[in-house]
Amino acid sequence: MIRRLVEKDRKKVLNYLNQEASLNIFIIGDIENFGFDSDFQTIYGEFNDKNEYMSVLLFYRINLVYYSHLNHFSEEYKVILNSHKFSYANACERLAKILYPYLNNYSYKEMYFAEAKSFKIKENISSFNFKVLQTKEEAVQLYNMLLTLDEFNTGKQSVTDFVDGKMKSLTSGITLFVEEDGLIISSAATVAETTTSAMVVAVGTRIPNRNKGLASKLVSALMEEYFNKNKYLCLFYDNPKAGKIYQRLGFENIDKWVMMEQKSE
């Protein structure tokens, strides 16, 4: 049986997802931060005949995230997939391979999934000048910076939707950035912050400002922020150069993550 989850399901579904907390950081974070009644998030649970969880499917804005402790995807989800609009589908590798055949006209991109619970090498950021994003104007600047970077596909969202999402996410993560001559030139952010962890995203630097260690220092600043709160960080990446930076700081690969993106018609 599959049904939409509601507030009374909170404790049981979180217990289920915390079996593999790192892999479920998006779903856990979105439940803890936005609950079951928001207009931009819908969560479904699948149960066996003993009323035990078999899987969870989350729709968050234009994103789908799927999890099961089994190597399993139910045919019953097909109707639900057809009733929601989403541009991205996400899952760990073993589940993405099962989910992908049910998606029509989507690309398939494998990435490494890593987590950090302590520093391996700590950057000296005592004199590093960075800011914390707080305003819509700063969010617009960030949108414009990310538009220049091919790896982010920021253009999939309008600036209005991006800014709205960024403002809402201020309660479930932080965005750090470096500014030069009134422009954001480098950024690193967290989203889906839970009681124990957060996901690092949008780590990037404008091409003319690269090779100065800006992104490395911003990630190090995030690590310091969260480690001081006794929380760990997760991220995924496919760029080997970026992977070396993350590993140098203290991230270790624990799995593979797959992002499936809807292709243009």
Residue windows where pLDDT falls under 50 for at least 5 positions:
none
The helical percent reads: 25-40%
Instruction: Provide the CATH superfamily of the largest domain.
Output: Gcn5-related N-acetyltransferase (GNAT)
Number of strands: 12
What are the secondary-structure elements, in order, as H or E?
EHHEEEHEHEEHHEEEHEHE
CATH class of the largest domain: Alpha Beta
Q: What share of the residues does DSSP label as strand, in percent?
A: 25-35%
Largest sheet: 12 strands, mixed
Q: And the CATH topology of the largest domain?
A: Aminopeptidase
Q: Give the class from helix and strand content and strand pairing.
A: alpha+beta
Count of separate structural domains: 2
Shape: globular
Structural descriptors:
8 helices; single chain; twelve-stranded mixed beta sheet; alpha+beta; 12 strands; 29% strand; Aminopeptidase; 265 residues
Sequence-ordered SSE layout with sheet pairings:
Blueprint: E1 2-4, H1 10-17, H2 25-34, E2 41-47, E3 53-60, E4 63-67, H3 77-82, E5 88-92, H4 93-99, E6 109-116, E7 131-132, H5 136-147, H6 159-168, E8 175-180, E9 183-191, E10 197-205, H7 214-227, E11 232-237, H8 240-249, E12 252-261
Parallel strand pairs: 4-5, 10-11
Antiparallel strand pairs: 1-2, 2-3, 3-4, 5-12, 6-11, 6-12, 7-8, 8-9, 9-10
Helix pairs in contact: 5-6
